[in-house]
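For reproducibility, we list the full input for the FE2/S2 (inorganic) cluster complex.
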Amino acid sequence: MFPLLTIGHVSRRSGVAASALRFYEERGLIRSERAGSGHRRYRQPVLRRIAFIVFAQRIGLTLDEIGAELAKLPPEGAPSGRDWSRLSKNWTSRIDERIAELERLKLGVTECIGCGCLSLERCKLANPGDRAARRGPGPRYWMADRPPR
Ligand code: FES
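The corresponding predicted structure, in tokenized form, follows.
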């Protein structure tokens, strides 16, 4: 049997704000029980699920994707090494994509810091008339799209 932890304990141990823990719970990513006082109590394995959520968010998974992955784990108790191994197999390509994105961002920032040219030929910040918006949300030229010539 696992000890029951307060939301403050879980927050301190996981480094995740109590408000975020309540949000995760609303989204069905983690579960709690109610003490006689009505306060939330978590079982120890929730810390591993929260670590999973934090890591998955850092590599770019959406909360819906994270929820789908967590649904493959046992709802109570600690996931086994085999469970984690199965989940992490799908992550290699996501991590590679994230690394490539960060490399592009690094290159873009490195080129532009102290430059200020906003050259239409080579600057990833230059976006006259917001033409990049036609390609979708976000900083399109930094994300990978090539600016029109
Ligand atoms: S500001 Fe000069 S390359 Fe971006």
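The longest strand covers residues 40-43. Residues 111-112, 115-119, 122-123, 125 surround FE2/S2 (inorganic) cluster (CB under 6 Å). Both points were considered when choosing residues for closer inspection.
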